[in-house]
Amino acid sequence: MEIITILIVLCGLFVGWTIGANDAANCLGTSVGAGLIDYKKAVVIVALFAFLGAVTHGQATTATVGSGIIDSSSVPLAAIIAVLFSASLFVTAITILGLPISSTQAVIGGIAGVGLVISADVSWATVAKIFFLGFVTPVIALLCSFFIYSMYGRIIRLRSFLFIEKFLGWAVLLSGAFLAYSLGANNLGNAMGLVVGSNSLPIFLASVLGGTAIALGSITLGKRVMKTVGNDITELSAQTAFAAQAGCAISIYMLTLIGIPTSTSFGIVGGVAGVGLVKGVGMLNKHTLKKIALGWVVTPVISALLAIVIYLIASRFI
Predict the structure, then answer these.
(1) Distance of CA 174 to CAs 60, 198, 217, 233, Å?
(2) DSSP 284
(3) Chain segment 188-231, per-residue pLDDT in tens
(4) Which is nearest to 27 in space by CA: 252, 287, 286, 311?
(5) Domain residue limits, the chain
(6) Global pTM?
(7) How far is CA 88 from CA 17, 56, 69, 106, 129, in A?
């Protein structure tokens, strides 16, 4: 394997690690915040199911990122390194600040920025669809979590409270595991799409390595964002944690089925906001939501500019 190929693979794994670090919170952060499970157990569950999702169901978004937006086999290898490295740097910085952010926006923004510089044949229709559906993701999650939490209130009036509470504990863990699976399946493309598209790795090996990187990221640096998701948006209980996680998982998995990479950060914030609305708008921490929303807006712009700068530097040596 040539050195340039090794660099591309390492950059893809770096992106995968940052995805796990930032997005682990989205899967069971609400459960940790509600006191249903401790952090160490939560990240192990996330790591396991994110790996399974990447290996078994990550091929669709990998194809979209690797060849559906830009033909990565025909662009300069320095461009691929620039996109992946810029995305990983930016997501890492935001993760250290403890804010959930979209790795999808970071990668797609980088592709768009470098694509303009090298005059590549970018499918702007696909880029627009990904960004549009990305912002639809929290809306779908909000509506789903609002509905699930509302239905829970009706069901609990019809059945034994103790029976519902016993079932709810398992439902919370299962919804978090399903969301972690969807995370791996949907976000593998962000990490390894360009790696596979550039013929640096075969799809199966890329899935295994990318899934491992996502799992390691969740274990090593998932705590900061988990606090924001679990404690700083609204006060959470077992019921609200389940509704938020389930609403997010449904929205992410729906887009995974059609090969559209999206953000679990978008989804879980929408899910938490949805259950917060059931309790009343006043229960939402608007300051935290504003910081998160600002991060969503600037991510593709900063990632595009950073990718361009890195490409201009890398192209001198590669």
Answers:
(1) 24, 36, 21, 22
(2) S
(3) 999 999 999 999 999 999 999 999 999 998 888 766 666 565 55
(4) 252
(5) 3-314
(6) 0.85
(7) 8, 24, 19, 8, 23
